């Protein structure tokens, strides 16, 4: 296999449409691509000024939970977690973690996929399904009532 130079890796890292980043064990982002910025509406200066990635989590306790899983299992695959947009609003992601050494520093390689649109569509579908179930109950109830009335009408006709 041919050797690939560092600039090629950098290009791939920057162009991939999935958020990729490496954070130290303490949570300081060491390197990240542009796809990490877009879903939250962040600029590089915003991310560089963070003391820890925990500031990006909508629920800070989720970081502890995902790290516990990573330590127990050695990795995390497709963990559903909400991150915080720059404006403070939450958005849903799928996050995966792998242990890594970056320039001699142990840390976690994270991939973060924005699934907010899909989660909102699932929630909307769930609401619509509940509405449909309620409508179905009403319609079935109506049909049963019609059958009862028809039966009573038949009884009345037969009594004449």
UniProtKB/TrEMBL annotation:
<protein>
    <recommendedName>
        <fullName>PAS domain-containing protein</fullName>
    </recommendedName>
</protein>
<feature type="domain" description="PAS">
    <location>
        <begin position="19"/>
        <end position="115"/>
    </location>
</feature>
<keyword id="KW-0175">Coiled coil</keyword>
<feature type="coiled-coil region">
    <location>
        <begin position="132"/>
        <end position="159"/>
    </location>
</feature>
<dbReference type="Pfam" id="PF13426">
    <property type="entry name" value="PAS_9"/>
</dbReference>
<dbReference type="InterPro" id="IPR035965">
    <property type="entry name" value="PAS-like_dom_sf"/>
</dbReference>
<dbReference type="InterPro" id="IPR000014">
    <property type="entry name" value="PAS"/>
</dbReference>
């Amino acid at each position: 296999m041919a050797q690939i130079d560092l600039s090629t890796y950098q290009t791939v890292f920057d162009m991939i449409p999935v958020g990729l980043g490496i954070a130290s064990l303490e949570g300081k982002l060491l390197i990240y691509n542009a796809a990490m910025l877009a879903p939250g509406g962040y600029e590089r200066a915003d991310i560089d000024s963070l003391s820890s990635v925990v500031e990006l989590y909508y629920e800070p306790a989720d970081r502890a939970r995902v790290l516990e899983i990573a330590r127990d299992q050695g990795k995390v695959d497709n963990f559903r977690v909400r991150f915080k947009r720059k404006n403070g609003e939450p958005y849903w992601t799928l996050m995966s973690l792998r242990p890594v050494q970056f320039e001699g520093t142990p840390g976690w390689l994270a991939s973060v996929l924005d699934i907010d649109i899909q989660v909102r569509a699932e929630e909307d579908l769930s609401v619509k399904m509940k509405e449909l179930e309620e409508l179905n109950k009403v319609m079935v109830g109506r049909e049963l009532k019609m059958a009862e009335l028809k039966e009573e009408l038949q009884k009345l006709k037969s009594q004449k």
